[in-house]
Amino acid sequence: MGLERQELLPEGNWSEWTLLSRSRIDQDKRLFDIKDTIDVLGEGGMDVQLLLFSSTQVQASLLQPTSYQIASAEDSWYPPSIYPEFRKQQDEILENERKQAKEEKQREKESRESSDPLKRPTTYGPGARGTAGTTRAIPGVPGRGVQGTGRGDEMYPYSGRPNTGRPKTLVDVDAEFAKLQLNERTKYEKLKEPLTFWAFDDTVVPGKNYRYRIRLGVFNKVAGTNQLKESFASLRNHVILWSDYSKVTDVVSVPKRFFVFPTEAQISPKTVKIQISKYILGYWYSKRFTVKPGEAIGTKVAYEPEVPVDKTTMQPEVIKVSTPETIDYSTGAVLLDVMAINEWVGAAGDNKLDSRQFFDMLYTYDGTNLERDPISSGYWAKDLLSNYNEIKKLEKRERKEFQAWGGGQKAPTGLLQRTPRGDEGGGIFSGRVDEDN
Question: CB 3.0–4.6 Å: which of 39, 138, 153, 198 could bond 430 by disulfide?
């Protein structure tokens, strides 16, 4: 299987196609690095290669490589053909959790008011008791809104159950995933459904844009012999006979995980208030810095989580989620100056121009090249403002503990893998191939 990638360059054009290696957690990575021609195959030649790849477990690992295990309590890896349904189900679960949390707060408020003698009603008529002290509408229903396992209705664990009218659950998503997975017991010649395969790119860089194409190959069992027809003589020494490339994917945009927002300027003395936001362990963290010319923008700081207070006991609650001990907000840039900008603006074709004044911060990463950004959200580019507002919203999300490593998704071979680093994403290409072709 050959996965290739193009990168969108700063000039706006695409790079040349580059063949990607297997992911860094692929246990068979070296095995799948096959030489192109028979003369460089090494000792044993084609016979050894055919023997190594005769294992159905190796074939499953080739076509459906092990995925990284995602620690987030709200996400898991599924092939692109299944992931949209998982995301839909997960979004519904999160929305139900938000509604339940809101209702719980309302019940607590009403309970406190009903126990307050100053607010308790002295007479009771129809409807006067309100809802104080009531229990959950469905006793025993966990926060996710599904059965006690947290994974849906176990009476019907398989997707596609006919004529039930039952909406899909996460159990259905898992069952659908299980159906297309290969393992050492798979009989390829007996497959009735198209074979699903996928590939990973774990070398992407946040903020960059890519697109992909893929092709499949089969071993040329007669490589190095004269058994090919003359019309295929050019393939005589080729170890693998490749298919055509797939269609090029849509652009895959890898989200940035670090933003600098200049929020406020002061002229005397010259300073800039800057919010730096960083994505760590599945959540956004932000810190405001006041920076003077000549000072570095951002630094490493100790993280002190805001400790919530139990409204009933008025005591600090125990923090039950993992948080970083320190956060490195360093940018590598140095603030040089704060400059006032006078600008005339007006609509196209409009004879009337308006004057506006704002401030730019001037900074450098290398001491040679000068860069500048406008200060204050009213003068930011639209995409920067959009990211700022989105981060503000995401920072309010309830933070949850990581999934247990033993409870995450499994690879086709049953192996579990842990992500070695948290600062890199992975572009994914998935496809389907008919076994008869």
Answer: 198
